[in-house]
Amino acid sequence: MQSVATTPATAALLQNVTVVLTRPKHPGNVGFTARCIKNMGITNLVVVPNGTPFAQEEMLGQATPFAKDIVLGIKYCPSLAEALAPMHFVVGTTARKGEGRGPQVQPREAAQAVINNAQNNRVALLFGSEDKGLANDDLRFCHLIVNIPTSAAFSSINLSHAVMILCYEIFVAADAGGRGFVPQTASVQETERMFEQMRTFLQQIDFLKKENPEYWLRHIRKFFARTKLLSKDVKIVRGIMRQIEWTIKNNK
Description:
By secondary structure, the protein is an alpha/beta fold. The protein has two domains: 8-176, SPOUT methyltransferase, trefoil knot domain (Alpha/beta knot, 3-Layer(aba) Sandwich), CATH 3.40.1280.10; 188-250, Helicase, Ruva Protein, domain 3, CATH 1.10.8. The protein has eleven helices and seven strands. Strands 3-2-1-6-4-7-5 form a seven-stranded parallel β-sheet. Helix 2 (27-39) links the parallel strand 1 (17-22) and strand 2 (44-48). Helix 2 runs parallel beside helix 8 (159-176), helix 6 packs across helix 8 (159-176) and helix 9 (188-204) runs parallel beside helix 11. The termini are far apart.
């Protein structure tokens, strides 16, 4: 295989990209993932384990010495919320379709969005477990959802293969240039705090249906995901809600 020299600009951009695996089931797939992302110039790997983290030896066997540093540098987080907290743009991957899984794009389109955002933002590529993928609750963090087209005869893709496909498209797009400008947006931690406040506020004014508030809040999340909120925007929204709450409380 012919290697491609990575330009300093491309390398710097890829430093802002992190692959996040939530609840992986097989240590070998984590090792293969480490090897795949190293092939594509990405060095950041975060794992949200389903219980006790895998033994390093089991992962290193598939990573090979080439990607040993990736395995040894894995960051482990107890929850997906914590893993994604410092990120500004989250791309989720799913094989399943449906209204709750939002509009989906293919890897090439997602790659362009990733490199546009990665210039000034920390980007997470989110992958679920090998058997179940990402749950709807995981997808609530995502700004963009990717579906990898496959043959109807056999649609299942190994976790590390899915990682390689998406990372390859990102590497090619990054090396080709032609980047659009996206300013630094609000972090996941900032927006999640806003949504927590919004949930409480909207329940107080009976806007969210008591039977299934998360269903209705999901549509609000999608609306704000399209707006590319800046930190100052989040502060304004939260300030408006606080002022309305204060006004309601003091005018009863």
